[in-house]
Amino acid sequence: MEYEIGADEAVSTVVVRAVSAVEGRDPLSLRPLVEILDPDALDALFGARTDGTPRPGGRLTFVYGKCRVTVDNGEYLTLHPIDSRSRNERGPGATEGSNR
């Protein structure tokens, strides 16, 4: 699943909604995102700088629910469903990423 994140949407909210849609579950039935990563930090990572200018680049990939979630530049969200074997190889809540 690919999704273009709107300028008025919080990245953390989009992640929860998208994972719940892919898994066919109510968002409230998912493990709280805060147990995987700090939602405020996720939003700040891709939010505008303090002077209002956008942050260039950046990518974060992490596992949430049964999906590998990738956020590119705070503009695009990509979800790849994963099976339990590949998740166990990376470990629960494993993250990787960079931000320029």
The major sheet is characterized as: 5 strands, antiparallel
Give, in order, the helices and strands.
Answer: EHHEEEHE
Low-confidence segments, given as residue ranges, are 95-100
In the sheet with the most strands, the strands line up as 1-4-3-2-5
Distance between the termini: 25 Å
Counting DSSP H or I runs of 4 or more residues, the number of helices is: 3
- CA radius of gyration: 13 Å
The overall pLDDT average reads: 86
Which class of secondary structure composition applies to the elements? alpha+beta
Number of strands: 5
Q: What's the number of structural domains? A: 1
Kindly estimate the percentage of residues that lie in beta strands according to DSSP: 25-35%
Please bin the fraction of helical residues.
25-40%
Rough outline = globular
Can you walk through the features of this model?
The protein has helices at 11-23, 39-46, 84-90; strands at 2-4, 59-64, 67-72, 76-81, 95-98. It has 100 residues and is an alpha+beta fold. Strands 1-4-3-2-5 form a 5-stranded antiparallel β-sheet, with helices on one face. A hairpin with a 2-residue loop joins strand 2 (59-64) and strand 3. It is globular, with a radius of gyration of 13 Å.
Identify the notable features of this structure and list them briefly:
alpha+beta; 100 residues
Architecture blueprint of SSEs:
Elements: E1 2-4, H1 11-23, H2 39-46, E2 59-64, E3 67-72, E4 76-81, H3 84-90, E5 95-98
Antiparallel strand pairs: 1-4, 2-3, 2-5, 3-4
What would you say about this model in short?
With 100 residues, this protein is α+β, with helices and mostly antiparallel strands. The protein has one domain (2-98).
